[in-house]
Specification:
Rossmann fold, seven-stranded parallel beta sheet, three-stranded mixed beta sheet, 12 helices, 14 strands
Length: 389
């Protein structure tokens, strides 16, 4: 019988939840692992998703009621609960494990030493735990990791960013040359991105040493809210974050638009960023599931559009005019940057890009308008700077 077991670590989150529903709909036996760390961060930061998120138990109950399909759930911490994790992997011997259980916010990682250490201890140890247990108890499992475009940095070179690897000529001091394929040089801009860059080396080690099947998705900034599945019932609705720590840029600007808060642009807003719609993100996770070649770690650039922040603001202002507040940039980055990205591998697998259009933006505005009473005006901005004091 064909293996249909799929484990999603972090399956209660912004990307993990719609993926769980999509794969369940496709008749996979979905097992969610989560410790609700993201929900606890809401309480820590005194913020929230503007869309009302029900408990995972209630979400799963209504999905089964609507679809007739069961999703299993185990509450555990992937970085700590090794024995329970081992039992789950041994029991299900899954076709794939999706690793979405890392801390996901660059600003959050830069808040303090405590927060940076949380990123290091959770992100690196969690990956090592899962890969080591796969090696020992389920070596045919495909490990799919949700990475970030931020491992490349935004201004390392003036060339198109390849999908993970460069063909390089290395030259030592004796002028001896060696041609080989290397990972794109890491150029992280935050502690969060630093852990994702270190993840890359962990994956290279486990693939080279044990021949594990590993895919790393270098994802752009996700915008949007719902997918077909999360739209089926109000209790299935996806997250919509608006705050300066966890809100992704386009969603954050739409939240500001509906409450008439001036758009908050870092500096002049000329920074280029890679964006992808939530529907395209979920489709990408689905497209990489069934792969045949694992001679090396498979790396995909999960990118839809490259836009500057000012281009997005101009687009929104053409729909509904709003003031712009050019705030001092808390990040350490150039005011303008070069960014061109190869995304051919997912396109060749059939990904059709959802672009920022008036229709798509109006749909998001409609969601934000419906729930705008849940936006805390005081949480739109934080005053935290990444620069050394």
């Amino acid at each position: 019988m064909k293996n249909r077991n799929i484990i999603i670590a972090g399956g209660d989150g912004f990307c993990g939840w719609p993926l769980a529903l999509r794969l369940s709909k496709k008749n996979y036996n979905v097992i969610i692992i989560d410790n609700f760390k993201r929900r606890k961060i809401d309480k820590e930061l005194k913020t929230n998703s503007i869309t009302p998120i029900k408990s995972l138990k209630k979400r799963i109950f209504y999905w089964e009621k609507i679809s007739g399909k069961k999703i299993r759930f185990y509450k555990l911490d992937v970085s700590k609960d090794i024995e329970t994790l081992k039992k789950i992997i041994k029991r299900y011997s899954p076709k794939a494990i999706y690793m979405f259980a890392e801390y996901k916010s660059a600003p959050y990682s830069m808040l303090s030493l405590k927060h940076s250490n949380l990123n290091f201890s959770n992100n690196l140890i969690s990956n090592n735990n899962l890969l080591s247990l796969i090696k020992d108890f389920s070596p045919k499992t495909h490990y799919i990791h949700l990475g970030t475009m931020g491992v490349y940095g935004y201004d390392l070179s003036k060339k198109k960013i390849p999908e993970g690897y460069f063909k390089a000529i290395l030259i030592n001091k004796e002028n001896q040359k060696q041609q080989m394929e290397i990972l794109h040089p890491a150029n992280p801009g935050s502690i969060y991105h630093l852990t994702k860059s270190q993840d890359e080396l962990i994956f290279q080690f486990y693939q080279k040493t044990y021949g594990l099947k590993i895919t790393d998705l270098h994802q752009g900034i996700v915008w949007g809210c719902n997918t077909y599945e999360t739209n089926l019932h109000p209790y299935l609705i996806n997250r919509f974050d608006y705050d300066h720590i966890y809100g992704t840029f386009l969603n954050r600007m739409i939240s500001q638009l509906v409450i008439k808060h001036p758009f908050t642009l870092h500096g002049k807003g000329k920074q280029k960023r890679a964006f992808i719609n939530i529907n395209d993100a979920v489709k990408s996770y689905e497209l990489v599931l069934n792969q045949n070649s694992f001679k090396k770690v498979n790396i995909f650039n999960e990118v839809g559009q490259i836009m500057t922040l000012t281009e997005i603001i101009s687009f929104l202002n053409n729909i509904r005019e709003n003031k712009v507040n050019n705030i001092k940039n808390p990040r350490i980055e150039n005011e303008e940057n070069y960014l061109e990205v190869s995304n051919k591998k997912l396109i060749n697998k059939g990904l059709k890009i959802t672009k920022v259009t008036r229709k798509n933006i109006l749909e998001l505005i409609s969601i934000a308008e419906k729930y705008k009473k849940n936006i805390n005006y005081k949480k739109i901005l934080t005053n935290h700077s990444w620069k050394a004091k």
